[in-house]
Amino acid sequence: MTDSPDAEVLLTGGRITPGVVRVGDTVRRPTTASSAFVAELLAHLEQLRFTGAPRYLGLDEAGRDTFSYLPGWVPAKFRRWTDTQVAAGGALLRSLHDATRDSDLTGGRPVVCHHDPGPNNTVFRHGRPVAFIDFDTAAPGDPLEDLGYVAWTWCVSSKTTAPPAAAQAAQVRILADAYGLTAADRTDVVTAMLDRQSRNARWWADRLTDHSADAEQITSRIAWSEREHAYTRANHATFAAALR
User: What pTM does this model have?
Assistant: First the structure.
């Protein structure tokens, strides 16, 4: 017996939008306040033949946003990545930013940022990052907003089992090199990491007012963000030195 091609399979990896399902070669998700912008952004990327994002396919019969399904592996948890994977992630982010630069979508800002380009929102094939998904938080911004987030979530960890700060800093440099970051912008990468860690803690703190949310899980994510911020601040000099 085979499953119906119209069967809905719940996708549980997302942390923000509930009710995301796969139907055949498509992904369906409830509309949000950002749906119109995301649709316009993905249409723009498709027009430029950018392959590192899903295609927007319109609304389904239930009024849900519909996207093409990108085959591959999406990590459920943060972990240590190889230098090659980090470099590929940096190149992918640069290609996304370049595809939006000078477009009408930027609202006068340098690029459109994904704003949540962690490994958990990245599709891997054959061990290599090839696309970003979940563009709900995409908005005009500065490249360093995404660079700071990627440097943190792909390269840095406060866990006692993680490699020493010097090894983590070496990967942040690999990321900056792969992205093609200018010497002037490199001096701001650590500040950008700290900013994204603080913003992440504040974002989750704001979710505590949602009585339908899991307060214990949210409190854990706030505490994690704060630990990561303290670790990055304590090793600021090590990270900064690697970027010179």
Answer: 0.93
